[in-house]
Amino acid sequence: MPNRLAHETSPYLLQHAENPVDWYPWGPEAFERARAEDKPVFLSVGYSACHWCHVMEQESFEDEATALLLNTNFVPVKVDREERPDVDSVYMDAVNAVAGRGGWPMSVFLTPAGEPFYAGTYFPATGRQGMVSFREVLDQLAGLWETQRDEVLSAAARLTADIRSARDALASSGGGELPGAETLHDAATRLAYEFDEDDGGWGGPPKFPQPMVVEFLLRRYRQTDDGRLMRMVSETLDAMAAGGLYDQLGGGFHRYATDLHWRIPHFEKMLTDNAQLARVYLAGWELTGLEHYRRVATDTLDYLLREMADPAGGFYSAQDADTEGEEGRFFVWTPQQVTAALEGTPEAADGGAELFCSAYGVTREGNFEGSTVLHLPRPLSELASETGIPVDDLEIRLAAMRRTLFEARESRVRPARDEKVLAGWNGLALGAFATAARVLDRSDYREAAERTAHFLLGEMMSADGRVYRSWKEGRAALNGYLEDYANVAEGLLELFETTGDERWLTGATELAGSIVEHFSDPAGGFFDTSDDHEQLIVRPKVVQDGAVPSGGAMATGVLLRLAVRTRDARYADPAAAALRSVGPVLSRAPLGFAKWLTVFAGFLEEREQMR
Fold first, then answer.
1. 8 and 150 co-located in one domain
2. Angstrom distance (rounded) from CA 153 to CA 148
3. 278 and 227 in contact (C-beta within 8 Å)?
4. Segments forming the whole domain that contains residue 36
5. How many domains are contained in the chain?
6. Whether residue 470 is found in the same domain as residue 596
């Protein structure tokens, strides 16, 4: 029998609707039962494209014996982190405090009051490599709850106090003065120090694209003409576009690379990454005129239109990493598969398959479980020199073969798609298409941006002008978060800049008013949840960037743009207060505050022009 998740719209929750686990969605009903039956809550948080979430489901949540342990001793609650970033954020702090690192699936054990007392991420079905099995965890914690209740409650109170203290310290770390221009210089210097000189990018493995860092460096380069900044940008953009992180056949980027060289991705594709990366490649093309940056940007946007667009006007959230139970199966190739796909085509003549394999690193051994993730192991100029084929002719031949292989790949079983539409993520896509329409003079991109704007202002707005977080198949749900209001407003401002249509400016202005009214923190900055949102153990205020820009940074950027246009203190004062609240940390941790740095750089530019 389906469990309670069968009535949800989230594809992630629906994936678990047939589990023998007696799942509850997040809500008062679960906690009321926990209090009535004097049981702890088991909170499991993940998302539909998460590989290890699937693994834990198959190993544990589909297992009858494990489900019996959960159902007998706990009240199990399942959360889609993309629908409820507030729940995810609050309890990820507990995971980091207990386990030393976060990730998904997130597994947190709570008192009936919602206070965490133990936390982790993926637990295997059987213990291995120093990891305790999930059943052992369940047995031990159920025993502690029965026999050492006072110690468990004390641990929960301490952990909750630590979470509140850490949030309060970070959220109020700002001083009374705005940071100075040296902040931008110091941040760029630290980014240069942390830059991967061999492969581009920062950090890893796992190695994430960091589009907000690239955006800041591009903004700073325009201000200073500092060649070292553009070198970091170009080396990073080149390396990502040449690697397996980028889908060489279909366009678009995977979530992150598991290696330092960008060649082996974690294969899920997210709307957020692709909206942001399309925009920074477009900005790279504007500055350099390099055609391959423009192609990467347009191929990425075309991928979103082709595979992620809902007919109603919004964009879906993600594509899965797995196909038929295997990670990456849809995307990888063997030499035999390349040869078979090209057989009988004009491209197969004169050793076409061998040429393609040489260009894209396809070998018998492969680079991922016996197959190859397509990538460019060397510049095409080197291959042209070896083969005697002029570079332009080589690129034409390879482009024809890419199209043929893409069509062959289309016959494979496709990865699952998370078809919920999130307002904030669609705001990022709206901004990307509106910018591309303006920069490239593309009417199709303008039409896509206008469809998305109409959808957001129609389907995802309540009658009183409040934003819904999630939409699927005609049903909008959940209170919008700061990032939803701010990202949609920023996208509308970009569309106004592209079209000059005042209704988009009006929409952005109304959303900005809601941000100031419902999300402002009197101490400076903005909370992630509105003043009429459900109360959790803390009111979230995440100022660092994650996979998406900080909602506070996006809101501040929107308010500053409106302040410049209107000279209205209603926008300027809260924006300045937000910048003061994060000023001291900007140069110390630029990888986590890159969007704030970009906003601050723009603020200094505008202030200088107004003098």
1. yes
2. 9
3. no
4. 4-171
5. 3
6. yes
Which DSSP letter does residue 368 get?
B
Are 453 and 519 within one domain? yes
Residue 526 CA to residue 577 CA, distance in Å, equals: 10
**How far apart, in whole angstroms, are the C-alpha atoms of residue 207 and residue 404?**
30
**490 to 133, 430, 496, 554: CA distances (angstroms):** 46, 9, 10, 7
Q: Which amino acid makes up residue 52?
A: W
Predicted TM-score (pTM) of the model is 0.95
- Residues in Cβ contact with 368 at an 8 Å cutoff, skipping those fewer than 6 apart: 244, 264, 328, 332
Residue 168's pLDDT band (cuts 50, 70, 90): confident
Cβ-contact 505, 492 below 8 angstroms: yes
Report pLDDT digits (tens) over 306-324.
999 999 999 999 999 989 8
Q: Which of 97, 109, 98 is nearest to 134 (CA)?
A: 109
pLDDT tens profile 349-402: 889 999 999 999 999 999 999 999 999 999 999 999 999 999 999 999 999 999
Side chain identity at residue 316, one-letter code = Y
Consecutive H or E run containing 502: helix 502-519
**pLDDT tens per residue, range 468-517:** 999 999 999 999 999 999 999 999 999 999 999 999 999 999 999 999 99
The answer to whether residue 133 is domain-embedded is yes
The answer to whether residue 31 is domain-embedded is yes
Q: Give the H/E segment covering residue 295.
A: helix 291-307
Residue 108 belongs to domain with CATH number: 3.40.30.10
Q: At what angle do helices 569-586 and 182-194 cross, to 10 degrees?
A: 40
In degrees rounded to 5, what are phi and psi of residue 109? -110, 125
Angle at the Cα of 107 from the Cα atoms of 469 and 421, rounded to 5 degrees? 20
Spatial neighbors of 313 by CB under 8 A, at least 6 apart, are 451, 452, 454, 455, 456, 459
